[in-house]
Amino acid sequence: MSEKDGELERIRAGKMRGLAAKMKEERTAGNAPIAVDDEHFDETVKKHSLMLIDCWADWCGPCRLLAPTVDELVRDYAGRVTVGKLNVDDNPLTAERFSVMSIPTLLIMKNGVEVDRVVGCVPKELIEERLKKHL
Prior knowledge:
By secondary structure, this protein is α/β, with parallel strands linked by helices. It has a single domain (3-132), classed as Glutaredoxin (3-Layer(aba) Sandwich), CATH 3.40.30. It is 47% helix and 21% strand. It contains five helices and five strands; from the N terminus they run H-E-H-E-H-E-H-E-E-H. The protein has helices spanning 3-28, 41-47, 61-76, 92-97, 124-132; strands at 34-35, 50-56, 82-87, 105-110, 113-119. It has a five-stranded mixed beta sheet. The longest helix has 26 residues, at 3-28. The protein is elongated. The mean pLDDT is 90.
């Protein structure tokens, strides 16, 4: 394989990863939280003016308890707030970047910048109170 062919293959592979991520995001948008990952984090939060990002892990009991609340927020705030989920085990760079020390942690991002956060399994009303400050 020539150097030119190798470069073309790397470009093609990158485009395919980006397309797969975009398709995954579009399939879940509006019905469920979108998947957020290290590779596309900045792009995703800049694309949505207001985001609530649930930082969670499979093994975390409180994260599982909070999941139905997060799903309700997706429906209740459709069109106003984009809700995403970031698995901290699969995406350690973003978790470290935002100093996520405990999960669940909900990051509230406005225009690509963290403006608030909620830590722990808290009532829906508390999350809504924080979100409404930024609508």
